[in-house]
Design goal:
heterodimer; A: alpha/beta; two-stranded antiparallel sheet; 13 helices; 32% helix; B: alpha+beta; 9-stranded antiparallel β-sheet; 6-stranded antiparallel β-sheet; 40% helix; flat
Chain lengths: 487, 1100
């Protein structure tokens, strides 16, 4: 790799270049840029039976990418699509009546067939006229920049089962690398001093399914997500003692690396030992780079306001969205934000629970799109907002003030933006009450194939050999690049 | 409602068709020579290990023979068309089970009266007529409905590839392998094909494969592994060297590194059974029990908190279970006994239980196993649901520890992949239900059993009576004093005011007249209480204090009530368990179920209820009966599961890599015959865990080197065949323990309440304790930060296998974390203190280090006789260092040189023949300026004389540069010397004038070296640079540090590498510190790096 011979500071940062040249980077330009950085020169696709080199060097994609990074705002619990993104006049009309079709419930004891019309109003927004609920006023404002997919479908009502489907490619199965791991394995990192795959965790604790959400499964731990703590210090032990920083620490790390190398030569073939050597180097560079990247205090006032850092309700999630942008700007490949517990899991009191979580996340999520666009980064950054399931059109429990909605893996919505996604459109549809996806159904595997495609990866070709077999994210199951939503 | 509950309920649809079906096919396909490989052939979770080796040894097993699995063949890419001859049992029924049988067979009520459980019944059909016409796929309704997408209803349709198989089967006349019985029991029965799964096969001792001497087999374990390697022409690696071996064994068996004495003893022991003796020594140590208890605690889900949401209330008595487990493992309590006690310890005790003895308390503590999972029943919520969750979690813990099956999947419906009917789950639960007693559920705090004896209770009552007496007496006395003092004070008022005051203060506060109220308010000093008596009368205070002292003594005698947290079944209780419809505890259904083990764990047709005998407790005896039935040696799962877990903990990987799932969705055993052999041996050796350790640890597979040779790397890359010892990282607690042991700070105290962990302002959770990790409090929601970063388990509810992650956060913990830094400083101290005694290290240091790493000390401390004109005669170093000062010997005055001593700021001269001398060796050329204060404090002495003796013009010449006298006074001592050169010596001499009595002096010297133009080159400070005798050389310290950390001497070139490092660090730190402080800092930096290396963090 020619770039390795240059000191890092002498290389033009791709992100920086993109910023300088503004918007409108097509794939051709990007390919040229990649070539100019020598990134298309080496590291061709792995030969059959061979893995890509197990490191984090930036790699040539399978084809010219539209996006180079991705931010996923994962909305654990099942956001109620019929109250947010998928208006259903029939449902409203028949609210309180019994539903005639069959319903797959999770909570049989509170199951009801009584339809529950959305208590919230929908309105057309933007040039495109996509209808968005009044609970999402900020998202409504960026509606011309996003694509709402209304036909998501996992076929499973459970949280974990669907979460694992989205992350690992197979419903319910753990022990597989997450999509972030695959992306980082396939593309490497653009940053030399930040982890390629970062997870921004929530002050209310780990999301459901815990560390499986960022596990590297059968891939080496090099590809697992690095979790940032929800509050300062976001990375514990990041700062060395003042008198041991700088050259003293450098000398320490040099000795450590040499001792580890000598040890590793006695144990050839132990990838874990090798990756731990790299881990120290990364950690050392992270000390300065991460501290800088995580510090949002120097962001201009208007940017801080944009993300809602001036309000109690949005400050926390807004700060994380802003950090996500700063990370991607600095070359981090894949950033995922989680929520603690399941704020979208509105089994009861949806009338108060849903507005509360919308209030917390709507403005920051929309700000991320606005801000990336302002910086010219939206073209090359995929933004995803969505959960693992949606919610049923029928009541859970009696139709009273405490009414809620049960799980629904049959049909739900998510939205995507940037990175080659066609803006200002909706895709697919659920049935007239919003229970099942009926038009242009998108499964998690389709979703993965599509995002891979935009990142320059082919989900069939990106393989990892483990235990003597070729593994793929979509794992040979029917998966389709959803070309209708590509710009 | 927790996520776990949702998970249990949603698990029905856990895997969709394309994932699960082919596995079922594959399981049995070989027998009929079908070339079937599933479309998901590359899913690790679903695919068995393949390769010639697998067949070679696997074929010896009954289950492989039964199923005829042909592992040896390379399987081509799958297509349904390759199934030439589908059979109902092997190919069709698994499809129907996933898509159809829920409505057409599983329940007594059949949808459309159609039963699809048998071909015969399919032919008979339901309301719409026959579902199947043999040979005619066009007329078979079952196919038509599937093709039309009409059936099954809902989203999930049968994939075309599977319809194609059914069609093919119908066309061929819908064959079955065996004739179908005329009558079948309700529900989806367990089929012969289900029974063929490897994990349910009767445990028979497999034949031990033959080996030859060149194979180097030491134990039967080796024979099985060699047998698997042979087809690939592979062999074990050579034995690990003795140092590596002892390190491995010590860390594996005790979780602690071997001590130097243990290493040396083992190296010297050339007897042929030295290794075996070593193993026995470690197995006998309490550290072994702590280490292996920790392994079990993972799968048992041990925690010191309830896990009830944000509160996460501490469980103050869980530790008794942990201690029970450690004690049991230490004495090698057979696993059958151990599990019997943990599952049913309370049933061995009489009821009502009076005055539990320590042994009885232990049996109660054991039952905490069934209470270890999270329990949120104290936190509110719908009790019946929350309690149901607790029971489900506990059953999961039991299931993953003993049965190795995901029994929880059958909580809501028949297990979709493993033969665990819905009924079986609740029969299993019925074993525990009387103890949990969901109808009268007890939250954690109500499950405590007091350990107080009757006698203690009586004693407590007596003491309390005495206490009350004393309190009453004291109060009476206080009242008397208060009255007296009040009267005294009132009497100080004019006569006529006295009575109104008395009345006002005596009246109850709410009954005072306005005038009285005013009187009270305006005369606060009359408000006499016991607390203010001291202001008026000391006698009163003294008298009352006697009562308080006596109370303190009496109260101290009161016995403290201790508790145990456990599961205790009430005798005579009848608790009915029914199946919960869809797992919902509010929808019990059907007849009460008898307690029983899983059907699949019993041989076919042998299904029977537990052989229950009434235990001494008068309780149901269900748990006792079940526990006993598990350990007959015939249970197909228990032995395999336990043996696999022990193996897993020795090698860092299991024979079955999914230790808690031996079912369809788990991984197949890498060495099935070996697993069976171990399971058989376990029972044969009376379930002794230590015997199992010996069998494994004394084998060649365990003793071999971890270094891969070319062949092993090429042909056994992932080390699946064990052609080298698997290198694996230590677990979180072991890393922490090893650091503490290495620095010499490990507190080996055994047992007791868990050490409380605290969360600091930044959210880091730590415990200030040097005890082993197993004793640190485990709060489910607030894990200890360092342990968590190294993958300490997340307990929701338990951890059946630890992960080994490699995140940059771990590097940061080691680089910057407070714990590691503090321990490195400690280790540096230990190294400094011990290195001189390490003769080998000292010798090595001499060989490799040509010049000192840290600059030589500039000050030396001695005494000298003086010439008549005050010049030193000879510099004699003071021989004795007290730790704070230099002097003639341990005692003063020293018989030879008297009172002469020197400390950081001054000293004391001896008699006229023994002046105190500090000698400065000039480090570089320059002009030396001295400015400091000389002080003689005592009025008794006759004063001291201070002189500076400097080099003269010629090398041999000495000159007296300055001289001062002080007596009970102080003076400025400033002097400027002529040019001095590096290596010149300047003596600072203090003598006693005439007598040395009371001649202590202070003379903290500051000498500045300046260039000709007056710039400071160096400042020399006698106080800061004051030092005791030089430590062992830094190189010797480095060599010793390596030995302490790694348990081996330095390797070739290692010391040179470290010398360069130390020189660099000494240079870089020199402007911040000097002398011994600098040395210590450099060594501490080295120690921290050594503690962070892979060699330290991994077992190899």
């Amino acid at each position: 790799m020619s770039t390795d011979k240059l000191p890092f500071s002498a290389r033009p940062s791709r992100r920086w270049l993109l910023r300088q040249t503004g918007m409108g980077f097509g794939s051709v330009a990007l390919t040229q840029l990649l070539a100019s950085e020598g990134l298309l020169a080496a590291d061709g696709p792995a030969k059959p039976g061979e893995n890509l080199p197990l490191d984090l060097r930036a790699r040539t994609p399978h084809h010219a990418p539209r996006a180079t990074a991705m931010i996923s705002m994962f909305m654990h619990g099942g956001p109620s699509h019929v109250d947010l993104f998928d208006p259903k006049p029939e449902l409203t009309k028949n609210s309180g009546k019994d539903y005639q079709g069959d319903v797959g419930y999770s909570f049989v004891n509170r199951a009801s067939k009584k339809l529950l019309g959305s208590p919230w109003k929908f309105k057309k927004h933007g040039q495109c006229g996509t209808e968005i609920s009044e609970l999402m006023p900020h998202t409504a404002r960026v509606v011309d920049d996003i694509c709402v997919v209304r036909s998501m479908h996992t076929g499973h009502n459970g949280h974990e089962v669907s979460i694992r489907y989205f992350h690992g490619g197979i419903a319910g199965v753990t022990g597989r690398p997450t999509m972030g791991s695959w992306i980082v394995y396939g593309l490497g990192n653009e940053s030399d001093n930040l982890p390629a795959y970062m997870v921004l965790s929530d002050p209310n604790g780990h999301p459901v399914d815990g560390t499986h959400n960022w596990s590297s499964g059968f891939m080496p731990p090099l590809y697992q997500g690095t979790v940032l703590r929800p509050k300062e210090p976001r990375i514990p032990n990041l700062v060395p003692q003042p008198d041991l920083a700088g050259p003293v620490q450098r000398a320490n790390l040099d000795l450590l690396a040499e001792l580890n190398r000598r040890h590793a030569t006695l144990h050839p073939g132990e990838a874990d030992l090798e990756s731990r050597i790299a881990g120290y180097e990364l950690a050392s560079r992270m000390q300065t780079a991460a501290a800088e990247a995580l510090d949002v205090s120097k962001e201009p006032q208007e940017v801080r306001r944009l993300y809602g850092l001036d309000q109690d309700a949005t400050r926390e999630y807004g700060t994380r969205c802003l950090i996500a942008r700063r990370l991607v700007e600095r070359g981090v490949r894949f950033v995922q934000l989680f929520l603690g517990g399941q704020p979208w899991d509105n089994h009861n009191t949806i009338k108060t629970g849903l507005p509360a979580i919308c209030k917390r996340t709507d403005q920051p999520a929309a700000a991320l799109v606005t801000d990336l666009k302002r910086l010219g980064l939206l073209d090359t950054t995929l933004v995803h907002w969505g959960g693992e399931i949606g919610r049923l059109p029928v009541c859970e429990g009696p139709l009273d003030a405490a009414v809620g909605r049960d799980h629904n893996g049959q049909g739900f919505s998510c939205w995507l933006a940037g990175g080659g996604i066609k803006a200002g459109i909706t895709h697919g549809a659920t049935d007239e009450v919003g229970h099942k996806a009926v038009e242009k159904v998108v499964t998690p595997n389709d979703f993965q194939a599509t995002l891979f495609h935009l990142l320059g990866l082919d989900h069939e070709s990106l393989q990892f050999f483990a235990n003597g077999r070729a593994m793929r994210l979509t794992d040979g199951r029917k998966s389709r690049v959803v070309t209708e939503i590509l710009a | 409602m927790t996520w776990l509950r949702l998970w249990e309920r949603s698990v029905a649809g856990i895997i969709n068709e394309s994932e699960a079906y082919p596995r079922l096919l594959r399981q049995t396909s070989g027998r009929f020579n079908f070339q079937v490989v599933p479309p998901c052939w590359n899913d690790p979770a679903l695919t068995p290990l393949r390769g010639a080796s697998h067949m070679a040894y696997g074929a010896t097993l009954a289950w492989l023979i039964v199923t005829g699995m042909a592992y040896g063949q390379q399987q081509p890419v799958p297509t349904p068309a390759t199934i030439s001859q589908p059979q109902f049992e092997t190919h069709i029924r698994p499809i129907l089970r996933v898509y159809c049988l829920d409505c057409h067979g599983a329940e007594e009520k059949l949808q459309g009266s159609l039963d699809l459980r048998q071909v015969r019944l399919m032919q008979k059909g339901g309301k719409s007529g026959p579902a199947l016409l043999k040979g005619n796929h066009n007329a078979s309704l079952i196919l038509k409905r599937m093709k039309d997408g009409e059936m099954p209803p809902g989203e999930k349709k049968v994939p075309p590839s599977q319809i194609e198989i059914i069609e093919h089967w119908v066309t061929q006349g819908a064959p079955t392998i065996r004739p179908e019985p005329e009558k079948i029991d309700p529900g989806v029965a367990i089929s012969a094909e289900d029974r063929n799964w490897w994990a349910y096969q009767t445990l028979n001792a497999p034949k031990i494969p033959a080996t030859n001497p060149l194979d180097r087999a030491r134990t039967s374990v080796d024979a099985f592994l060699i047998d698997a390697m042979r087809p690939k022409n592979l062999a074990f690696a050579p034995d690990a060297d003795k140092r590596t071996y002892i390190r491995r064994v010590a860390l594996d068996l005790t979780g602690l590194p071997p001590t130097a004495a243990e290493i040396n003893g083992f190296l010297r022991d050339s007897s042929p059974n030295a290794a075996e003796k070593l193993v026995d020594t470690y197995l006998a140590s309490p550290a072994y029990a702590e280490r292996w208890a920790r392994h079990w605690l993972d799968v048992f889900g041990y925690a010191d908190s309830d896990g009830d949401g944000t509160n996460d209330a501490p469980r103050p008595y869980s530790y008794k279970f942990r201690d029970y487990l450690i004690r049991s493992i230490e004495k090698d309590k057979p696993l059958n006994q151990l599990f019997l006690e943990m599952l049913a310890g309370d049933e061995m005790l009489p009821r009502p239980l009076k005055d539990p003895s320590p042994q009885q308390a232990d049996l109660l503590a054991a039952t905490m196993l069934l209470r270890l999972g999270p329990d949120a029943t104290a936190a509110g919520g719908e009790q019946v649901i929350v309690a149901d969750q607790v029971m489900a979690d506990s059953l999961k813990i039991v299931g993953s520890s003993l049965l190795g099956l995901t029994v929880g999947c059958a909580q809501c419906h028949d297990h979709k992949y493993d033969p665990i009917p819905h009924n079986d789950y609740f029969r299993l639960r019925a074993i525990f239900a009387p103890a949990w007693n969901p109808a009268a559920w007890k939250a954690p705090a109500s499950r405590l059993v007091s350990l107080m004896t009757e006698a203690q209770r009586k004693e407590r009552t007596q003491i309390e009576a005495k206490e009350n007496e004393l309190v009453a007496a004291r109060d009476k006395k206080a009242a008397e004093w208060i009255a007296k003092v009040f009267e005294d004070e009132v009497n100080k008022f004019p006569e006529k005011e006295r009575q109104p005051l008395r009345d006002a203060f005596k009246a109850p506060a709410d009954k005072r007249t306005p005038e009285q109220k005013k009187l009270v308010e305006t005369n606060p000093k009359l408000n006499i209480s016991a607390g203010v008596l001291y202001q008026f009368n000391q006698k009163a205070v003294d008298e009352l204090k006697k009562f308080d002292d006596e109370l303190t003594v009496v109260r101290a005698k009161k016995p403290v009530e201790d508790f145990i947290s456990c599961l205790m079944e009430d005798p005579g209780l009848k608790v009915e368990t029914r199946l919960n419809n869809r797992g919902d505890p509010r929808q019990p259904k059907g007849k009460p179920l008898n307690p029983a083990d899983l059907t699949i764990a019993q041989s076919e047709g042998a299904r029977s209820d537990l052989p229950v005998e009434k235990p001494p407790s008068g309780t149901t005896g269900y748990r006792t009966a079940w526990a006993k039935s598990l350990f007959t040696g015939r249970h197909p799962l228990v032995g395999r599961v336990l043996a696999n877990r022990i193996w897993l903990n020795h090698f860092g990987k299991g024979i079955v890599e999914t230790p808690a799932d031996f079912g369809q969705l788990g991984r197949l055993p890498s060495h099935p015959a070996l697993l069976d052999h171990l399971a058989v041996e376990l029972a044969k050796n009376n379930w002794s865990q230590k015997a199992m350790h010996r069998l494994i640890v004394n084998s060649t597979v365990y003793r071999q080197s971890s270094t891969a040779n070319r062949k092993s790397l090429e042909q056994d890359q992932s080390n699946a065949l064990y052609t080298r010892f698997p290198v694996h990282r230590l677990e979180a607690e072991a890393i922490r323990d090893r650091i503490l042991a290495t620095t010499g700070n490990l507190d080996p105290t055994l047992f007791g309440p868990s050490i409380v962990t605290n969360e600091d302002a930044s959210g880091l959770v730590n415990a200030t304790s040097n005890r082993r990790g197993i004793y640190l409090q485990v709060r489910r929601s607030r894990p200890e930060t360092m342990l968590a970063s190294f993958d300490a388990p997340v307990l929701a509810p338990n951890c059946d296998k630890r992960t080994t992650s490699n995140a940059p956060t771990q590097a940061l913990v080691l680089m910057n974390g407070e714990f590691v830094r503090a321990q490195s400083v400690q280790l540096a101290k230990r190294v400094r203190a011990e290195a001189a005694a390490n003769t080998q290290a000292v010798a090595q240091a001499k060989n490799v280090a040509p010049s000192p790493i840290v600059p030589l000390p500039v000050w030396a401390y001695g005494h000298s006789e003086l010439t008549p004109d005050g010049f030193t005669v000879a510099f004699n170093p003071l021989p004795h260092w007290t730790g704070g000062q230099w002097q003639g010997g341990a005692k003063l005055p020293d018989p030879a040189i008297g009172w002469v001593l020197l400390h950081a700021t001054g000293g004391h001269p001896g008699d006229k023949a023994h002046a105190a001398v500090r000698r400065l060796t000039v480090p570089c050329d320059g002009f030396l300026e001295i400015s400091c204060t000389l002080k003689h404090a005592s009025p008794s002495g006759d004063g001291v004389r201070a002189r500076v003796i400097a080099p003269g013009k010629k090398p041999s010449e000495r000159i007296k540069a300055a001289e001062w006298l002080v007596k009970n006074s102080s003076t400025q001592t400033a002097a400027r010397l002529k040019k001095v050169r590096a290596g010149d010596v300047v003596d600072f001499v203090v003598d006693c004038i005439e007598t040395e009595t009371s001649d202590g002096f202070e003379w903290p010297l500051t000498a500045t070296l300046k260039s000709p133009d007056g710039n400071t080159i160096a400042t020399l400070d006698s106080t800061k640079e004051f030092a005791g005798p030089p430590g062992p050389s830094l190189v010797a310290q480095a060599a010793h540090a390596i030995e302490l950390v790694y348990g081996r001497p330095p390797r070739e070139g290692e010391l040179n590498l470290i010398i360069d490092f130390m020189r660099l660090q000494a240079r870089q730190l020199a402007d911040k510190m000097s002398g011994p402080t600098l040395e210590d800092a450099v060594v501490a930096q080295l120690c921290q790096q050594l503690l962070s290396t892979n060699e330290f963090l991994y077992v190899d």
